[in-house]
């Protein structure tokens, strides 16, 4: 999509990009040298997505503390990306850091429970409302295990996802709708010889008629969804969507799996607790252990019973649900510290107050410049969406992306000392974020928008 439809002339976009790129490269000799020195990493980075940011060479972070980053050249940044939610509660929260040091002296990985295990289970049940929990290492894994459990519990082969959703590197979920509305493997997917649509159905978000039709033959074990689509700009549920989804899934005997990995921004119990959703299964990863690789998946009594029966009816063998480092003493210590001391009501009150400011003031900047954009919000998560009206589904969200414009804005913000999430315009407020940082975010955004429009 050309950037014209975003309300910005393409020439302005390339001028902003060129100016920011020259500044970035000109003032970061050590960053440039580090990029050249990583010869034995594939594509020069420890994980290949790192070359997909807006930067001409990756930013190399020497320090991340609270909501601040410092690069190897000594430039400081106000961090509103926060590791794309992994550090939603700030970088290295003190109670987590202390718990890790304490635990390291007593063992990090034993493949056995530590004394924190029972307490962590109690904390999860009290916070998220489901009675039974398992620990995994990434949200990807938690989703994968929960989907397997759903298939085992129901004896059904298929799953249903919403177009434009992202649930991690879970093979079954890499299905989307093409421009003419047909299900297909998602573009860009590497090394996937299978037609994933055989076992994964996909329908537009907010479309209850399509859900009804997709579940009618009772072959679908599970619907997996985020409460709000947060990975294709931000698509909010229409009034009645979640109630309808719950009613239809129950009526067809399909389990409902809610993935709260990003919507944990809503409040201490996630979006589900805040808005009274009642999932059969629940997943949250990323920030749940304060930045330590850990995720959790929970289930109702009924799902737990059916899963137990399914296990008992199988011959001895591997369940396909688990990894060696999952449920480790390290993870349990970090989970306990995060749940007891970091992700508190007080922390969320602060995050929400700052996100209120971000929403209001970014809306003001957009209005001043008369741009056809709006701000969407999910608790501490704030997103600038390049469309005049709220998005309805993943298909619409695709038309609200302008990669050249977005990367120019991201790099222009970066050289002004502000980091936002890559690939779309997402900003998070953490307990460590300050009003002064929000002031700087707004001032930098206003400056960038003026360069693009005035
Ligand atoms: N679920 C959702 C909703 C996500 O946004 C993501 C990652 N962006 C994941 C799951 C996967 O998380 P991870 O990459 O940590 O496995």
Automatic annotation (TrEMBL):
Its EC number is 5.4.3.8. The lineage of its organism: Bacteria, Pseudomonadati, Pseudomonadota, Alphaproteobacteria, Hyphomicrobiales. The keyword rRNA processing does not apply. GO terms for molecular function: glutamate-1-semialdehyde 2,1-aminomutase activity. Pfam families: Aminotran_3. It comes from Ancylobacter amanitiformis. Its cofactor is pyridoxal 5'-phosphate. Belongs to the class-III pyridoxal-phosphate-dependent aminotransferase family. This is Glutamate-1-semialdehyde 2,1-aminomutase. Signal peptide: none annotated. Keywords: Isomerase, Pyridoxal phosphate. InterPro entries: Aminotrans_3, PyrdxlP-dep_Trfase, PyrdxlP-dep_Trfase_major, PyrdxlP-dep_Trfase_small. It comes from the Bacteria.
């Amino acid at each position: 999509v050309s950037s014209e439809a975003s309300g910005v002339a393409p020439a302005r976009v390339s001028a902003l990009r060129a100016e920011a790129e020259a500044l970035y490269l000109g003032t970061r000799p050590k960053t440039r040298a580090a990029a050249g020195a990583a010869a034995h990493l594939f594509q020069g980075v420890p994980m290949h997505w790192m070359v997909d940011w807006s930067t001409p060479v990756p930013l190399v972070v020497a320090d991340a503390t609270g909501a601040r980053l410092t690069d190897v050249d000594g430039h400081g940044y106000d961090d509103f990306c926060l590791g794309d939610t992994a550090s939603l509660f700030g970088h290295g929260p003190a109670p987590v850091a202390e718990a890790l040091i304490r635990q390291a002296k007593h063992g990090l990985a034993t493949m056995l429970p530590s004394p924190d295990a029972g307490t962590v289970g109690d904390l999860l049940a009290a916070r998220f409302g489901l009675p039974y929990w398992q620990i995994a290492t990434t949200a990807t894994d938690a989703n994968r295990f929960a989907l397997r459990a759903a298939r085992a519990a129901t004896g059904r082969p298929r799953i249903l996802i919403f177009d434009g959703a992202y649930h991690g590197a879970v093979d079954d979920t890499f299905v989307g709708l093409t421009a003419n509305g047909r299900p297909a493997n998602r573009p860009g997917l590497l090394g996937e010889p299978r037609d994933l649509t055989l076992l994964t159905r996909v329908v537009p978000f907010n479309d209850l008629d399509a859900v009804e039709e997709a579940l009618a033959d009772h072959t679908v074990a599970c619907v997996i969804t985020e409460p709000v689509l947060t990975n294709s700009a931000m698509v909010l549920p229409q009034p009645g969507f979640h109630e309808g989804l719950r009613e239809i899934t129950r009526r067809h005997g399909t389990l409902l799996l809610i993935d709260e990995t990003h919507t944990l921004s809503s409040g201490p119990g996630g979006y589900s607790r805040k808005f009274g959703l009642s999932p059969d299964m629940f997943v949250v990863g990323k920030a749940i252990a304060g930045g330590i690789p850990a995720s959790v998946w929970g289930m109702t009594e009924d799902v737990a019973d059916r899963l137990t029966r399914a296990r008992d009816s199988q011959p001895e063998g591997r369940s396909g649900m688990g990894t060696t480092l999952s449920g480790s003493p390290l993870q349990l210590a970090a989970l306990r510290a995060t749940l007891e001391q970091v992700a508190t009501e007080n922390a969320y009150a602060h995050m929400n107050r700052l996100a209120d400011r971000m929403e209001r003031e970014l809306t003001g900047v957009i209005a001043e410049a008369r741009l056809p954009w709006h701000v969407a919000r999910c608790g501490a998560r704030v997103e600038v969406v390049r469309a005049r009206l709220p998005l309805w589904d993943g298909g619409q969200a695709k038309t609200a992306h302008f990669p050249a414009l977005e990367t120019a804005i991201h790099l222009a913000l970066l050289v002004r000392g502000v980091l936002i999430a890559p690939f779309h315009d997402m900003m998070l407020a953490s307990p460590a974020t300050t009003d002064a940082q929000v002031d700087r975010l707004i001032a930098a955004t206003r400056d960038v928008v003026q360069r693009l429009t005035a």
